[in-house]
Amino acid sequence: MRLKVLAAIVNHPLLLFYLRERYPASSYNQGTTFTKDMLNDQPVPKLSSRQMEDLADLVDKITQEKPRGTSAVAESSTEQILNNLIYRFYGDGDAEIEVIERRGR
Questions:
Q1: CB-CB contact of 54 with 2 (8 Å)
Q2: Burial of 5 by CB count in 10 Å (0-12 exposed, 13-18 middle, 19+ buried)?
Q3: For the whole model, what pTM was predicted?
Q4: 92 by DSSP, 3-state: which?
Q5: Model confidence over 8-46: pLDDT tens digits?
Q6: What are the residues whose beta carbons fall under 8 Å from the beta carbon of 90, sequence distance 6 or more?
Q7: pLDDT band at 72; cut points 50, 70, 90
Q8: Pairing between strand 27-28 and 31-32?
Q9: Which residue pairs from 95-101 have beta carbons closer than 8 angstroms and sit at least 24 positions apart in sequence?
Q10: Taking the domains of the chain in order of start, what are their residue ranges?
């Protein structure tokens, strides 16, 4: 379950935004070169067992919705629910979410 929760956080737009803002010199041609230290320094919210279960269940649902090896451009409704949950776990409000989503494009 913990790996699914970490997968959800690592693949969330907030992580990429955080890394680009914190390590701007690591960006090359609109990409970011991730290092182990960058990922280890990522702040992770303290989650209850129930919150972790909810995230893991959503990850399971997403992996069932998307065939392996595909990368759909449009977010599914399940992915939107997952992303909104993670934003809320970090305490982000609508204004912060808008900035993160806008810069992520």
A1: no
A2: buried
A3: 0.76
A4: coil
A5: 998 888 988 887 788 776 555 566 677 788 778 888 889
A6: 14, 43, 45
A7: low
A8: antiparallel
A9: 100/13, 100/14, 100/17, 101/13
A10: 2-103
